[in-house]
Amino acid sequence: MNPDSLKGEIALVTGAGRGIGYEAAKALAWLGAKVVIAEINEQNGKTAEESINKEFGAGKAFFVKTDVGNEKDIGKLAEVVLKKFGKVDIVLNNATVFPIGAVKDTPIESWDFSYRVNLRGPVILARKFLPAMIEHKHGVFVCVSSSGAAPFIGAYEVFKTAQVELANTISAEVEGTGVYAFTIGPGISRTPGFIEGGGKVASLMGMSLDDLFEMNKNAQISPEAAGAGFAIAIALAKRYHDQETSSIQVLREAGIELTDEKQKAQEQEKLVTKPIDSQNTIELYELVQKTYLEQSEGWKKRNLFERQWISRDFKKNTGMSIDEMQTTVKALGNSLKTQASTAEFVEPLNRLAAYYVHQQEQLKGFEKDPKKLEENLKIIDGWIRDAKGLVQVLTR
Ligand SMILES: NC(=O)c1ccc[n+]([C@@H]2O[C@H](COP(=O)([O-])OP(=O)(O)OC[C@H]3O[C@@H](n4cnc5c(N)ncnc54)[C@H](O)[C@@H]3O)[C@@H](O)[C@H]2O)c1
Fold first, then answer.
1. 156 flagged as catalytic
2. What is the pLDDT of residues 287-311, one digit of tens each?
């Protein structure tokens, strides 16, 4: 990745007046593209244009006031941009609205409003800009996903999920044309939109916004990193074509480490440094339980595509679902407390240890950095050691 990576490209980013869209526009400009800020908020659009031009040079950013849900606006946008630049190479469907509330309480108007921005907009943009991309055998069309179904965000999430299917459909339709399409989700990021909407969701869930972030700490990412992830994926569009990915995954694959992950690895390492002999059954159980619960909760927060892939892979390798293993691990804790028989838990623990060995094999195929590979294999060695150690003490 360097300032020539997207040199000569014209990137249209919707909703780039603030938040992740603004950061993505900035990162695209850094990679050499000229960016069109298609934003409904005039004030924010202008400020974003000024600030990118100030940082990267005049003419790098160009603001066009646009409502993505309005076909006439997109027609005008295309006219202005084609007159100025002659083409659009990249469309990043970042604009969003985030209506909050339980399905039973959300007025139908909020669903219509969300549909306009979160689905109708990307479809209008696809209709407008894909034909020329296909004709010129060059282009990238990106949809932006979210976390998947969750309480109180139905009117937002169902159209975001539909956006994923839109990218899947387009990917198949542009196959072999030189145009690439994919979906990317940022992770959880403290943007103005999320602070406002997430705050409302948190209060409906009876918690604070900070609690909500804490609950999702594995998926946390700064708006800047999330936007950089979008831009890198665009620069590597061929690689991400027809996929649903996330900024965290793209940054990891690009070898850019996020601080949180480093801390997590260090904490995990601390947990596994105690030799088995000095640990009693309960201590070992707690290590196994903590590792598995953290992992399984983390898997549940992945995007839909990753979740489905992990669940299938887990079941194939352990013979049980992620939830069944959670229940089994919890039940073992109860049996240990009540000193009931634990014989039935030996087999699932063996399977869990075998699954960790499988994870190590996967990691060897995926992690290109030898130092990181060694560090992560060592961490998983610790998980295997704990699970096998627990089997050992249960069968003593
Ligand atoms: N922040 C997160 O934690 C999070 C999590 C999952 C997915 N996302 C996705 O990431 C993307 C960016 O999110 P964000 O948190 O930066 O959002 P944000 O609310 O902070 O910014 C959204 C931008 O879209 C603009 N916009 C709204 N309606 C528009 C319209 N009709 N036409 C043009 N622009 C319009 C807004 O004015 C705003 O500038 C969104 O697609 C969102 O769904 C964000």
1. yes
2. 999 999 999 988 888 877 678 788 8
Radius of gyration over every alpha carbon of the chain, rounded to an integer in angstroms: 24
Query: Of 191, 222, 224, 246, which is best to mutate to test ligand 1, by the most ligand atoms within 8 angstroms of its C-beta?
Result: 191
Closest ligand 1 atom, CA of 188?
3
pLDDT of residue 279: 58
Q: Where are the domains of the chain?
A: 10-253, 259-394
- At 196-237, the pLDDT tens digits run 999 999 999 899 999 888 888 888 999 999 999 999 999 999
CA distance 130 to 125: 8
Are the CB atoms for 130 and 227 separated by under 8 Å?
no
Residues 6+ apart with CB under 8 A from 173: none
Q: What is the SS3 assignment for 230?
A: helix
> Ligand 1, closest atom to CA 69?
31
d(CA 339, CA 333): 10
CATH, domain range 10-253: 3.40.50.720
Contact at 8 Å (CB) between 14 and 38? yes
Q: Which residue has the tokens 């690689």?
A: 239
Single-letter code of the amino acid located at 132: A
